[in-house]
Design brief:
Belongs to the aldehyde dehydrogenase family. By secondary structure, the chain is an alpha/beta fold. It has 15 helices and 22 strands. Bound molecules: nicotinamide-adenine-dinucleotide (NAD).
Amino acid sequence: MSLSFDPATIDLPRAHFIGGERVPATGGIALHRPSDGVAFADCPVAEADLVDRAVEAAKRALKTSGWGIVRPRERVNALHRWADLIEAEAVTLARMEAVASTRPIAELLKFDIPITVEQIRFFAEFADKEGGDLVPTAADSVGLIATEPYGVVGAITPWNFPISMAAWKLGPALAAGNAVVLKPSEMTPFATLYLAELSVRAGMPAGLINIVLGDGRTTGAAITGHPGIAKVSFTGSTGAGAAIMENIARTGIKPMTLELGGKSPQVVFADADIALAAGAVARGILANGGQACVAGSRLVVEESVAEEVVGLILKQMSEIKPGPTWDEASAYSPIISERQIGRMAGIVDAAVARGARCRTGGSRLDREGYFYAPTLLEGLEANSPAITEEIFGPVLTVQTFRDEEEAMALADHPTYGLCAGLYTRDLSRGLRLSSRLQAGTVWVNRYGRSRDHILPTGGYKQSGLGKDLGREAYCANRKSKSVLIAV
Ligand code: NAD
C-alpha cells in the first residue's frame, strides 16, 4: 500500500477534548501547512474557563474511576489496550500529523508512532513494579517511604515531534495514577487530540486525558497557573520554560519538569571511524530539518581530519530528498513556519556578512512551502549567533581543534547542555571525556535517541530541569511520603 496521500482529504478534529467528549470550537490561530504553505485550519484558543472545565473533568475522572488507587495492574492493562489501539490506528494518526507538521509520513510510520506505542507500554509496566521502600529505623518502629500520584498533571508540548512528545508526558503521568490536562503546540494540535480520543475508545476512563488547544500566553499560562494542577511537565524552548517558572512562582509553587532547548556539539577526533562519524553528524543535523532539541548543530572536529569529515557531510547534504510530508518518498522536512525560516535566514545571512564561509546552502529551497537548504558554515567568529543560538534548522557550524583541551573548551556551551556526541576509537578517551562534557546525554560513536526508553533524557544548564523517559520520569509523577509507625 502506498503511504502517500492527498492532504485535502484528511478530516481534522477541530475541537478541544474534555471529559471524553469533543468540545467544538471555531476561530483562533490560522495554520499553514509547512510542506506547501497553504492555509488549512485554525487552532482555537482555550481561555481560562475552558481550562477550569478540563481540570474539573480530570478531577472527576480520578474520583469516579479510582484510577490512582485501583490495583495497579488495572492501569497496566488499560494502557496496553490504548497502545494496541494506537498501533491499529497508526495510519490515521500519521496522516493527521503529517498534514500539519514537519514529520514525513514514512518517518511517522517507521519511528514516531511505533516509538509512541513502545513508550506507553514501557511506562505502563512501571505501575505494578515500581514502589516505595521499607527503610531501616530503630526496632521500635517501621519506616516506610510511600509514593502517591499527584492528581492532575498539566502538560505542554512543542510542535517538532508532537505525538512522541505527548507520549513522553502522558505515559508516565497516567501509569503513575494521575489524570492529565495537556496543551499541544498551537501549530500541531490534531494528532494529539486523536491520540486522546483513542484512550477512551480503548476503555480508559473519560476525563483522564483532556486536551485543550491554544497558545502559550493564554491557554498555557492558564494551565501552569491553575491551582487544581498539582504538577507541570513542559517541553519547549528555554524562553518559554523561564516564563513558566515565573508564572508558577507567582501563582503557587508546584513541582515542574522542564525539557528545554539545546545547541549540542559533535566532537570528532582524528582516530574516529571517519565515515561513521560523518554519517552520524549529517543525520544529527538533517533529521526533521534540524528541528530537534537534540540536533547536533556544532561540529567540533580535529584539524587534521576536518576537510575529510566536512567533505563526507557535504556529500550527504547534497543527496537529501525534500518533499511534502504526505509523499512517502520525502526524507527531508520543511521548516515549521514562514516566521521560523525568516529567523534562521537572518542568523545565517548575518554570519556570512561577518565573514563566515558557507560551504553549501545558506538559502531557501526554490520550491513551494518552507524548505531551507542544508547549510554548513565555517570560519565563524567565536561569539557568532550561529554558534551560540539554537537555530532549530538544518544549519551546521564547523570549528576545529588541535588537542583534547581545545576540543572540550569548544564543545562547552555557556548556557545549553542537552546532549553531546563524541567520536573516537579510543574508548578510554570516550569514557574520560564523556564525564567532562556538560550535557544530560552523551553519545559515543553514535548520535540521537535510541529506543532504550530506560535512559532518561534531560538537560544540564538551561537545557532543562528534571528528566523525561526512564524510571526517573515515572517516579517524577509520584510524590513520596515518609511514614513512621511506632510498633
Ligand atoms: P515553544 O517554547 O515556543 O512552545 C512549546 C509549547 O509551549 C507550545 O505548546 C507553546 O504554546 C507553549 N508555550 C509557549 N509559551 C508558553 C508560556 N509562557 N506558558 C505556557 N506555555 C507556553 O517551543 P516550540 O517552538 O514549540 O518547540 C521548539 C523548542 O522546543 C526548541 O527550543 C527545542 O529545543 C525544544 N524542545 C526540547 C525538547 C527536549 O527534550 N529538551 C524536545 C523537543 C523540543
